[in-house]
Write a structure and sequence with these properties.
about 270 residues, two-stranded antiparallel ribbon, globular, Succinate dehydrogenase, membrane
Length: about 270
């Protein structure tokens, strides 16, 4: 089909080429750069804190263990900090305990569908915002290395569930006092329980979890229980972005709180 320009017919290919020629980077007049800038600052602060926390040695004080160092699996861990008293990595592991385990929850968040959107725009400017041209000349999506590895997100989900269980167990153990007696409930206990709840909400709101519950079913009527599970997860999934941010900051706050108590900056009897 052809259209006319100044009385002369114009072919479709020529028309498409003409329409794509926009000199400005974008025609948007709003502050489109603000959202990616805030996302960049927020994610960068979390990464900076995580790097510091990995090498900080004040991660345990009865009955609290910092989430960034849990589970503690080396003999270098304090005895009360070891998961079920186990130390499968023995004496040979000399690096900070957090390095053993942080890659797994970090991998779950790094490959998360929402976080991809966030750091693709904020760090890689691919694209920085809707209707804004990106600076890259070529786009291959997630079809080549390294981004093709994003497809392992569904496997990180299973590992994330394990870590959610561990953080919940840490919150339960925080119901003890420094002498091992049950019945303690300090501010730190509340913080750890809130963090565990938000971690569960974020994990279960994951798109992979939604697919696992009933994403491959053709007839919901034949699987009423899985349909109810899918409905519940779908409601959480609508808040996945919010839960991603809340859980990210809750685990950072919980981790920092425990470290401040361990350093004596926060008075333990009031903790």
């Amino acid at each position: 089909m052809t259209q006319t320009t100044a009385g002369r017919p114009t072919s479709e290919p020529a028309q498409r080429k003409q329409r794509a020629q926009i000199g400005a980077r974008t025609l948007r007049t709003d502050r489109w750069w603000l959202a990616p800038a805030i996302t960049f600052a927020a994610l960068a602060s979390f990464l900076a804190y995580g790097l510091w926390a990995v090498f900080d040695k004040s991660y345990f004080v009865e009955p609290y263990i910092a989430p960034f160092s849990s589970p503690c699996l080396a003999t270098s861990c304090p005895e009360g900090a070891r998961l079920f008293g186990l130390a499968p990595f023995g004496d040979w592991w000399a690096l900070p305990p957090g390095i053993l385990i942080l890659g797994f929850p970090a991998g779950f968040r790094f490959t998360c569908y929402y976080y991809r959107k966030g750091y693709y725009r904020a760090f890689w400017l691919s694209p920085p915002a809707c209707a804004v041209a990106e600076p890259h000349k070529k786009y291959t999506g997630e079809t080549r290395l390294p981004l093709i590895l994003q497809n392992i997100h569904r496997y990180f989900f299973y590992i994330a569930v394990v870590f959610a269980v561990i953080l919940t167990w840490d919150a339960v153990l925080a119901l003890r006092d420094e002498h091992g007696e049950w019945g303690h409930f300090g501010l730190g206990t509340a913080i750890l329980f809130i963090n565990a709840a938000l971690i569960w909400a974020y994990t279960l709101s994951c798109h992979s979890c939604r697919h696992i519950t009933a994403g491959r079913l053709n007839h919901f009527s034949k699987h009423p229980l899985r349909y109810k599970m899918w409905t519940f997860v779908s409601k959480l999934n609508r808040r996945h972005m919010l839960l991603a941010w809340l859980s990210m900051y809750s685990i950072m706050i919980a981790d920092l709180y425990v470290r401040l108590v361990a350093k004596g900056i926060i008075n333990f009897p009031l903790a």
